[in-house]
Each structure stands twice: as C-alpha cells, then as structure tokens.
C-alpha cells in the first residue's frame, strides 16, 4: 500500500428529512425519514465504512421560495420536512462508537449559551465525536419564524456570527481541563479558582458565563463552516476546522482551496489544520453511460417547478414570476450565496430557458461524479492531487442506497489505493480528521478581537 | 388483583448532572454523569420497571446563589454541571421503546419555533413518547447568560409563557394529521391546502410558521408544568397534561391537588385529563429506623454551605450574608417560588439557625418517604386515596442505586396491590398516562386568547 499518498477524509451529507428535490420520490428511497431507524441504520453503514463523520444540514422554515408561498415546497416535498438535527445526531451517537456527528445551528436565531451547551453536551456524551456547522442562514422565512421582518444583510449576519463564535469558544473554555476534581473524601467537586465567567459584552449579544458544562473531550467540538462570499471565506479561515463547499468545476474548487488556505495562513494558522471538503453526489454504475442513464431516472422525476423552488431557495430569487419558456432575467449575482453564483452563470452561458434550468437544477448532482467506482475514485484522487480538496462530503441522491453503494464500491477502491483508512486510528473526530485538540485560550488566535475584548 | 383501585403513575426525576447537593459524593453514586452510559443504563432500569417516564430538569446557569458568586456551586458540585437535557433524552429514546422521555425548556430564553420543532422531532423519533416540561426559570444568572440584566418579574414571565405556549401549540397544529401524502406516482408530497401558517403576533414574540415538521404521533407532545404561585397554577391548569409539585405535608398536597383540578374544571377541561405528580425521594431499608440511619449518611456528607447554596438557588435569597449561627432574617415569602415557601415557613416555625437550616435543607428529601417498601407503598396509596396525587415523581437521592432499589422493591409491591401496571398497555406516553390525543385546534381550548388572536 503506497503510504506517501495524502489520505482522504469522508463526510456523509444527510438531511433530517427527505433528500434534495425528489429524494422522497426515488424508487429506492426509504420513506422512514420521520423515524429513528432511518437515521441509525444509515449511521451504522457509515461507521462500518469508516467515514469520518455524518453531517446534518438545517433550515429553520418551510421554504417560501415561490411567490412568497410555502405551498410549492409542501406539495413537492422540496426543502421540507426538516427535523431538529440535534436529536438526530444524538440518537446517531448512541448507536455508534467512532463516527463523528456534526449538525448545523444558526448564529442568527439562537443564543451562544444554548449552542455552546448543546455541542459541549454532545461532545461529552459521544466521547469526543461532536461538531458544529456554523451557518448565518439565508432565507427571509427563517427570520420571520423568529420575529424578524426579513433576513439581515450579510455583513450584519457575519458581524453577529463573529461575536457568537467568540462567546461560544470562551464558554467552552470557561472550565479548564482539570477543573473537575470530584474528591469524595474532601467534598471538593470543582476547582473554582480555574473556572471563569466570560463577561462577554458585544454589540449583538452578551453572555456572563461560566458554562454549566466542564470542558469537553475535544476541547472544542469540531467547528465547520461553508462560507463562500469574501466575508464567509474570511470567517471560515479564522474559525473553522473543516470547510464544506460546492463547486461545479475543478478550477473553481482549486481557486477556493488556495484562497481559503492562504487566508488561514495570513491569520497565523497552520493551513493543514483546516480541512476542505467539497460536496459530491456520486452516481455509481458499471460505466459512465450507465451512470448517466441512472441519472435520467432522477431527471424524469423532477418537476421543473420543484427544481425552480429549490433554486429560488438557494439563490433567494423567484424565477416563476417570469415566462418559464423565456430566457433568464437579470439576477444580481453579487447578492447570491457564493457557491450558487456559478450555477446562475452557467445557465446564462448555456442559454437555458427558465423551465430547462428548473429541470436541470432539480436533478443536478454536485461534482459531476458519474461512473464506475474506479472512475469516481480516479476523480477523487485527481481533486486531492490538484489541490482542490482534503476529502469530500458525499451527498446521497437517495437514502440509503446511494450511501450503501458508495460504502460497498468506492470505499474499498480508495482503501486499495491506500488513500482511505481501513480502521479508525483514534476515537475522537479530531483524531479522525488529523486536527489537534485546542488548548484552553485558543479562541484568542481565532477571534477578530484577538482577545482584546 | 383488586382492579377497582386507582392506578398510580410513576415518573423518574434525573438531573443531567449529579443529583441534589451531594449526589456525586455519595458512596453509591455513579461518577459517570458526563457519559452516555450513565443515562442509558438508568433508562433501561426504569423501562424494565414500567415507569411512565423519565424527566430531566434544567437550569441555564451555574448557580450564583451565594454573594453573587458561582464559586460555591462549583466547589460543592451543587447545581452544576448541567448538560443540555435534549441530547440526553434523545439518547435515552434510542435505547428504549416504551419509556416516556420528558425534558425541560424555558420559555424565557428560547424561541417557540425552536422549542416546537425540538419536541415534535423527539415525538416522531421516539414514536410518540416525548414530553416538554415548561418552565419560566427563576435565577438572575440565567437571564445574565442571555443578555438580560436580571430575571423579569413573575407576571411578565408568565405573560411571555402564555404567548409562547399558544405559538408552540399552533405550530404543532400547522400540519394536519393527514397532510403528508407522499404519493410517488403523482409526485405530490404534501397536501398544501391543509398546511397553515400561524402568523402569530404577540407582545413578546412573533412567529410566521408553518413548522417544518408534520404533526407528531401524540398530536401534542405531553405538556408538563410545575407552577406553584397563583399565576403558575392557573397557567398549569389551562395548558398542562401533567403537573409536578413538591410538598412537605399531605395537607398541602391535598390543597394543591384540589385547587388545580378545580381551576382546570373552571377552564372547561376534564380534571381527570390532568395528572398531578408530587415529588418524593424515598429512602428504602428494612425498617423506618434503618432508613433514618441511611439518611444520616447523607446528612454527614452535606456541608451546610452547600445546603444554603441549594436553598439560595431555590428561594433566590442568600442567607450566608447573615450570622450562620443566628436566626433566620425576614424573607419575603411572597417573592419565593411557591413550593419553597413551606420550607421557609417550617424553618421559622421550628426555630432553626441558618447553619442548621443549611444542613437540613441540603439533605432534605421530598415527601418524607423513609422506610420499607411496604411502608412507602402504604404512603403512596394513602396520598392517592387522600386526593393528593395521581402518581409520583421519584427523585433518586443517588443514581443509580436509589432507582434500582425502588424498581426492585417498591414497584413489585405496588403491582401486587394492583395499583401499578405489570406491562405497558400502549406505546405512547399519552397512552401510559391515560391522556387522550389532542385534536388539531385543541390550543383554542387552552389558550387564554381562546383563539381570538
Ligand atoms: C455543503 C454546504 C452545506 C450547507 N449547509 C447549510 C445549512 O445546513 N444551513 C444553512 O442555512 N446554510 C447552509 N449552507 C450555506 C452556507 O452556510 C453559506 O451561507 C453559503 O455557502 C453562502 O456563503 P456566504 O454566507 O459566504 O454567502 C451550506 C453550504 C454548503 C456549500
Ligand atoms: C418537581 C419540580 C421540578 C422543577 N423543575 C424545574 C426545572 O427543571 N427548571 C426550572 O427552571 N424550574 C423548575 N421547577 C420550578 C417550576 O418550574 C416553577 O418555577 C416553580 O415551581 C415555582 O412556581 P411559580 O413559577 O408558580 O412561582 C420545578 C419545580 C418542581 C416542583
């Protein structure tokens, strides 16, 4: 086994609800996404295949992407239902012993004390396997479920996120690693000298502390982010241990990778301590032609309006207000979430009608990974060697078969090539990812305030 | 088996952290309260004993009960650590199949969309076993962890709680029981006609809806509350399915029971659809004398300052500012949480010094249930027959042995007497408790607005 090759990390992307636009409709899809068994059985498959982690995204609303109405999302099952991801990763942690468990919480609609406590709790209960995907959210409907008239502008969202991360990491550091003594003879439980309030006072939020939970096994649960805009990249380069992204081409993936690692180095961080995982949605078949045929099954299931609903949700722009058989109107791509700009630009370049865009986008799969296990493994190795990725986030087109096929076909192929583990070497998610455990006080190196607050 | 007797319901009170003032110090206490195994193993014991539910309380701060400092709480392990209860009940639900799982969330420091979603999720994932203990919180330190200078006054807390419950129940009702169609052939996932926004606009909070989670197995997860003040009793009588309380005497328990059931009837509810469960902390031994000896083990472990810290936390009044060997100062019992007024009154009546009160309160066990299994069973039956209880919330003085002893000794005794189930008759928590499943729209019968909003 060639040991000089760079090892690949694997994350699995699973909604707490049906997958994608038509995931629930696919003939192989398990309809049990409101039951515990659905999640625990996939988790067992992923752990047997030695995945680094399972990741659950989140959205705090039924999308109101078309004409301000939630009805299309309900009718098509697009972007809804979405369960609370925290109970989902909790139950997954209870039936696994190595798999990392990562879920998403927004800095816009929750409080740092609550988020710090949830992930510290999960880190304790899972024995050091928890991670938090930090999002600033992007739908007006989410703001409206939390008493706000509309989504705040991106700079304001990231300003709040910055304070939020500083407060959360300081809460995680409010107990030292040795603060719990628990000496029954003397009756001393904690070393109060080493437990500190944080007395954080920001412009957007304030927290007194200390946290009611001792420092957790990983020091900080793994911090994940997926910023794509310049603000988002800077934020991720400072705070994140893992970065998810989505690219339509190898070129844009390489640009993103180099840019974020350079930003990290500029902030004084070791770029190797940030793992970048582009999203891919492999479609496996004995040959590329058969994989394309398999993909056509999806295309036939996708209603163009469901595709436009998903797109409207991602780009916050409703195309159904225009003639579906006409060309794309002007869309201000600066206002669009970073990763999705490429989508709009590509559609314009290829001259699609709005209806064609809906069909294409509804059935679109990330990373163009269609083919045999060997072909997909070739592409994964190519991306890593080209400097586009430290690993991948595998999106299942439908659950559970897409994960099962990846586990049965691609994982052994990667293991044969010596680029993926055959056994877990450690027990914590940081160990799987090759990330060191942050010392107490690490937040000073990551916060924009640098500890000056 | 005499079947005419009223059946008793049993809940188990378990902190997401050490028990009581000295629970961690007790020689039989499992020190693993930061691990999953601690909770899952107790849950298995409780399910084997056919308990209705396990209940996890919550507190959103390290108590700053003495001189505004959190140090005594850390030093004594009194009221801290406290994990997030939602992951705890999630993992419990994953290793059990019948036991009800109830945790606590405050209406003061979270948002209705989040709370509605968490418990609806748990209700789906557990197959209809979830419950929410509604609290309005009572410590300044909690407010200060959420950007507020101090705890709002009780009327304001209950005014917000009222809006919160109306919003949450309406979110639970935003999908109908038949809204999910999931017809693969036609591609129709949901019946959008039957899914409604709630457009709730209150004085304290606003929520648009609909919830991103379909109506859950129990319709509404079981609603639990423990109000003791007149405001709290009125709120509980309208909203609750289950009411927890704490009484030092049978007389006060009878008064409370009659008052709350009458209030429920006044609001047009069937009083039998509200289950009142006083807290008890049994200490079991072959005889009462031996049980008292066993209790003395606790008393010796309790530092009077730890006891005063616990009391200060419960009554929001710091007695360490006074001479510990002097008498109680004047305490405004109207400002004190209802259940704890009795404690203050009793201490004054018996002429304890502050130090004696600290020792006594730190080792105090609810309900005066010391003795053999037969004696404890006698008292439980007496309380039920006297009209003080529909069942009990069993507090473990230490985990796991106190639960194990109750399960091994008292449960079989109650079963022999025909007052406790030998097998679960149903699968949902509502079925265990003999509570009917609320129809969609039930919130109108419970909300003060009566649906006029
Ligand atoms: C793989 C991936 C997963 C994401 N998951 C979520 C999510 O669960 N919830 C969410 O609100 N945003 C999610 N996002 C959006 C990002 O958090 C971020 O807002 C987006 O990439 C735009 O970047 P920007 O904030 O810099 O504009 C995800 C993005 C990617 C690429
Ligand atoms: C058995 C029991 C359990 C309770 N659990 C909690 C809890 O977990 N968190 C909390 O903030 N308050 C808890 N409380 C306090 C009640 O929610 C309530 O605030 C208290 O009984 C005072 O009533 P009042 O609000 O009417 O003054 C509990 C009370 C009792 C009796």
UniProtKB/TrEMBL annotation, chains A, B:
Entry keywords, A to Z: Flavoprotein, FMN, Monooxygenase, Oxidoreductase
Keyword Chaperone set for record: no
Domain Luciferase-like, first and last residues per copy: 35-388
Sites where the protein binds FMN: 58, 104, 158, 229
Pfam families: Bac_luciferase (PF00296)
Single annotated GO MF: monooxygenase activity
Family: Belongs to the NtaA/SnaA/DszA monooxygenase family.
Protein's recorded name: LLM class flavin-dependent oxidoreductase
Organism per entry: Leucobacter weissii
Lineage start: Bacteria, Bacillati, Actinomycetota, Actinomycetes, Micrococcales
């Amino acid at each position: 086994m060639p040991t000089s090759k760079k090892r690949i990390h694997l994350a699995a992307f699973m909604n707490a609800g049906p997958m994608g636009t038509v995931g629930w409709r696919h003939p192989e899809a398990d309809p049990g996404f409101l039951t515990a068994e659905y999640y625990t059985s996939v988790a067992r498959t992923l752990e047997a295949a030695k995945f680094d982690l399972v990741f659950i995204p989140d959205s705090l609303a039924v999308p109101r992407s078309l004409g301000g109405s939630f009805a299309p999302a309900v009718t098509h099952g697009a972007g809804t239902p979405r369960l609370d991801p925290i109970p989902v990763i909790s139950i997954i942690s209870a039936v696994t012993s190595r798999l990392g468990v990562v879920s998403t919480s927004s800095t816009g609609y929750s409080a740092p004390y609550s988020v710090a406590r949830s992930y510290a709790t999960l880190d304790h209960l899972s024995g050091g396997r928890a991670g938090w995907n930090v999002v600033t959210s992007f739908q007006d409907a989410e703001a409206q479920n939390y008493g706000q008239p509309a989504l705040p502008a991106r700079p304001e969202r990231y300003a709040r996120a910055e304070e939020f991360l500083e407060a959360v990491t300081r809460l995680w550091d409010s107990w030292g690693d040795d603060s719990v003594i628990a000496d029954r003879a003397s009756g001393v439980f904690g070393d109060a000298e080493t437990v500190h309030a944080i007395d954080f006072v920001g412009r957007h939020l304030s927290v007194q502390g200390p946290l009611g939970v001792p420092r957790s096994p990983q020091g900080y649960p793994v911090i994940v982010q997926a910023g794509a805009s310049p603000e988002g990249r800077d934020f991720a380069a400072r705070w994140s241990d893992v970065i998810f992204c989505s690219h339509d081409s190898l070129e844009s993936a390489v640009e993103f990778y180099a840019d974020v690692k350079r930003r990290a180095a500029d902030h004084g961080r070791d770029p190797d301590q940030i793992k970048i995982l582009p999203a891919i949605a492999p479609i496996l078949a004995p040959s590329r032609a058969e994989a394309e045929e398999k993909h056509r099954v999806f295309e036939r299931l996708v209603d163009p309006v469901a595709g436009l609903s998903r797109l409207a949700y991602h780009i916050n722009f409703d195309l159904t207000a225009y003639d579906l058989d006409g060309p794309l109107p002007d869309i201000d791509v600066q206002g669009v979430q970073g990763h999705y700009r490429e989508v709009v630009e590509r559609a314009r370049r290829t001259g699609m009608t709005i209806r064609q865009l809906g069909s294409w986008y509804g059935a679109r799969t990330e990373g163009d990974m269609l083919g045999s296990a060997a072909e997909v493994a070739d592409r994964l190795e190519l991306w890593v060697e080209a400097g586009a990725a430290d690993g991948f986030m595998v999106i299942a087109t439908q659950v559970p078969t897409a994960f099962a096929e990846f586990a049965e076909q691609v994982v052994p192929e990667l293991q044969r090539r010596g680029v993926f583990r055959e056994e877990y070497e450690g027990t914590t998610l940081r160990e799987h990812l090759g990330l060191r455990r942050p010392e107490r006080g690490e937040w000073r190196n990551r916060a924009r305030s640098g500890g000056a607050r």
